[in-house]
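Hey, does this match?
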Amino acid sequence: MQNEAHDCVKPTEGKHVWESLDENGRQAVPAFCEQYREFLSVAKTERETVDTLVSFARVRGFSPLEERDQLKPGDRVFMVNRNKAVAMAVIGSELLEKGLNIVGSHVDVPRLDLKPRPLYEESGLALLKTHYYGGIKKYQWVAIPLALHGVVVKGDGQMISLVIGEKVSDPVFTIADLLPHLAKDQMEKKMSEAVSGEALNILVGGNPVVGQEAKERVKQAVLDHLAGNYGIVEEDFVSAELEAVPAWPAREVGFDRSMIGGYGQDDRVSVFTSLQAIVELENVQRTAIALFVDKEEIGSAGNTGMQSAFMVNFIAELTGHCLPQYSELVLRRVLANSRAISADVTAGTNPGYTDVMDKLNAPLLGRGLVISKYTGSGGKRGASDASAEFVSFVRQLFNKEGVVWQTGELGKVDQGGGGTIAYLMAEHGMDVLDCGVPLLGMHSPFEVASKGDVYMAYKGYKVFLGS
């Protein structure tokens, strides 16, 4: 995963990325996005994403912060939080008190989590019960092939990692839908009610156990398979984190291959592009941080989400490692003088549903990175609402460095909306702006992004971190 930035003709807002690039840029975009496609196909859980980030960071000269006594300009460090969040920093030549440049994204995506007691038998079939995670359209998760990813921590503390359903030779799993011949009542329901959360049960077995007595013989056969192949017993599900995700790789979309389609682009497109941005930085003035956090899709709660102390703890450690005397006052100055981008996707205009967008403020695929002064819903609820001065700073920076950008909102006022981690970063006094890639089919099992927009996200995050 390596790519060098290429200059392009200075764009105007809303110009198509492909028209704005020179020949070098047009060659760079497909190469960069092929690396992204490979990343998207492999990193399907938050743990897998963090493992990939850390492995790549180590190769590019980053080392664990806890292994360092002091830091100097040019040093590259990272810190991992419970294998579900990570922060990376390139130390700059300026004092930390003058502030940091931060790009924050999230590694979690909508999915189906197995319940603590998931396995049961019904009508001669074995199934796993799930609890959906994040905002999904439940009907989109039936009648598609699913893979199981995650970890199981056994009763003795041993951790077993599982990925079943991604190889061609693997079995896959699925949630069977109701045939249209018998779906009269289902078809008359609202779309939100046609498939209930409790009906998202995954089909995992059909043959009964042979040669032994059991009350639920198909379930017992599944348990025997798990014990024989993975050393897992039924009670181990209680201390497991197993996620059902679409069992397909990311693909190129369109005759011209101008788009990437795949699962989890919200928000792993920001994760990949900001990772690429920070590992390519050298000789920066302001210390640059790429932050990758968990739990955004369920409110950023928990000890790995943005509401946790992880970011502040990481910056406090940096401050203590860089300055001869650490104090709470210095830390507060570092935070308040920082500037940040909340790197998260937004809704691109879907040609089939243009009525949900305000056409004057609607992001379009292929028109570059989207600057959103605020997100939230209704009366900007849950937004940080960046200042005009900071929006101008980012706008000037992007124009100067040839980053194709556009402005946009997530739909019409009162149509709906959504939030990011921006308001949680802004609580520390720093300037924050939402900035990300527009997607079609956001939160679906197959989201679509323009390759040009993906490339401009990488370029925009890199120039911001290095500013």
About this structure: The domain at 111-246 is CATH 2.30.250.10 (Aminopeptidase i, Domain 2). The two ends are 23 Å apart (CA to CA). The chain has two domains: 17-109+263-465, 111-246. The longest helix spans residues 23-42.
